[in-house]
Amino acid sequence: MSNVPAAAGYYQRHIFFCVNQRANGEACCADHRAQEAFEHCKAQVKALGLAGPGRVRVNKAGCLDRCAGGPVAVVYPEAVWYTYVDQADVDDIVNHHLKDGHVVERLLLAPNVGR
User: Fold this and answer.
1) Which distant-in-sequence residues (6+ apart) come within 8 Å of 105 by Cβ?
2) How confident is the model at residue 114, as a pLDDT?
3) What are the CB-based long-range contacts (under 8 Å, 24+) for 30-34?
4) How far is CA 66 from CA 56, 76, 79, 83, 111, in A?
5) Single pTM value for the model
6) Is 79 left (phi over 0), alpha (psi -120 to 50) or beta?
7) Alpha helix (H) residue ranges in 48-112
8) Which domains does the chain have, with CATH numbers?
């Protein structure tokens, strides 16, 4: 992974995991162990030495309004939306997209999936 100067953006890549919990019974990412996925991603990024300014930041987010595809995560600046099932999927996102800059096609969230 190349080092990006801070002037180009504080982070080279930024991934947001929806961890929203809905109290009214509607579909939500929290029902799909999104918090665990976030924690696993954060640990993997740190273990691989990818974390920090000019590199990668892992954040949790409230509702990203794509609940029907949950759980979801989005990587910026590319604006690539992912859905995932387990830690192996999160590992693929970390190793291929966050580390090497390659989109993980099999985990892409269909563009028409919303709430």
Assistant:
1) none
2) 79
3) 31/70, 32/70, 32/71, 33/71, 34/60, 34/70, 34/71
4) 23, 16, 14, 10, 10
5) 0.89
6) left
7) 87-92
8) 6-107 (3.40.30.10)
Burial of residue 100 (number of CB atoms within 10 Å: 0-12, 13-18, 19+): exposed
Angle at 61 (CA atoms; ends 6, 74), nearest 5 degrees? 65
Most distant CA atoms of the chain, gap in Å: 44
Specify the higher pLDDT residue, 114 or 5.
114
pLDDT of residue 26: 82
47 phi and psi angles, rounded to 5 deg: -60, -30
Nearest to 19 by CA among 31, 29, 27, 10: 29
Two structure tokens written together for 60: 């949790």
pLDDT in tens, 86-100: 999 999 999 999 999
Q: What pLDDT, in 10s, does the model give residues 37-85?
A: 999 999 999 999 999 999 999 999 999 999 889 899 999 999 999 999 9
